[in-house]
Amino acid sequence: MNLDRGKGWLCIVGLGPGDPKWVTPEVTATLEAATDIVGYIPYVARIAPRTGLNLHASDNRVEMDRARAALQMASRGKQVVIVSSGDPGVFAMAAAVFEALEGRPDWQALDIRVLPGITAMLAAAAKAGAPLGHDFCAINLSDNLKPVALIEARVRAAAEADFAMAFYNPRSTRRPHTFGRVLDLLRTICTADRLMTFARAVGTPEENVLTVSLAQATPEMADMRTVVIVGNSATRRVGRFVYTPRSAL
Ligand code: SAH
User: Fold this and answer.
1) Which of 10, 75, 194, 215 has a CA positioned 20 to 30 A from the CA of residue 28?
2) What is the reported pLDDT for 175?
3) CATH number of 121-243
4) To test ligand 1's pocket by mutation, which of 122, 143, 206, 225 has the most ligand atoms within 8 angstroms of CB?
5) 3-state helix, strand, coil in the chain (%, to 5)
6) pLDDT of residue 249
7) In the chain, which residues have pLDDT < 70?
8) Probe ligand 1: pick from 43, 91, 209, max atoms within 8 Å of CB?
9) Within 6 Å (CB) of ligand 1, which residues are found?
10) Distance, CA 14 to ligand 1 centroid (Å)?
């Protein structure tokens, strides 16, 4: 993709959910060309160290500082890669970088590229069968960047419109109750037999994919390494698989 080895650039890449086979060849080539890797600690830990490569791992929740630091390095001639898990545009660093570009025409002129990756919900859906075979939406259940009332309003609207849903960041130790409230909300709209897939650590040795009915679902089935897929009213089991028919007719 013709990255200039002599000049500064910034690529925001997705490493996929965990399995090295799911890192795209484009991302692998870009990591090989980089001088600096920037990202959240567990994602930077996935990059093999080598001579001449500087690793800048930072804690979560400092996305804007991380974006500005990466842009600063690129503007000084470094070849910088920001790593995200999954896809960098899905609840991840690409949007933070564009936010940092606001009001900075100098940074806007840089060679900046977003390289896609396999997002968690698509890897999880593939493991389960095809629960996202019809219309669906993705909702981040973290209240870091939005109020809980907005999360609940969106879940309600999606359930009432009979979308399948993928929930990212479903449950953390800091906010253990949001997901229980979301389950309660779903129970007021969907029937008890609605299928839900809890896909944990997909693409890693700890992978666990479990499909249960809404009646059987408990908050403890989810943690921060889980993506939860809620089927629509037609989602069903066939053999060991779960799928959503392509037609709503
Ligand atoms: N950019 C990432 C999402 C970052 S938000 C992507 O596109 O996948 C972090 C959330 O993603 C986690 O809380 C979890 O809900 C989901 N997630 C990331 N990796 C996962 C994996 N290997 N298995 C299941 N869920 C995962």
Assistant:
1) 75
2) 81
3) 3.30.950.10
4) 225
5) 30, 25, 45
6) 82
7) 1, 5
8) 91
9) 17-18, 84-87, 90-92, 119-120, 124, 168-170, 199-204, 224-227
10) 11
So what's the pLDDT on residue 237?
A: 98
Question: Which amino acid is located at 70 in the chain?
Answer: A
pTM: 0.96
Backbone angles phi, psi at 183, to 5 degrees: -60, -45
Residues of the chain with CATH 3.40.1010.10: 9-118
CA of 93 to the centre of ligand 1 (A): 13
Query: Which residue's C-alpha comes closest to atom 13 of ligand 1?
Result: 169
Taking the CA atoms of 159, 168, 202 and 88 in sequence, report the sign of the dihedral they define. Answer: positive
Closest CA to 203 of 85, 81, 115: 85
Find tokens 């409230």 and name the residue.
181
In this prediction, residue 185 carries a pLDDT of: 98
Which class does domain 9-118 fall in? alpha beta
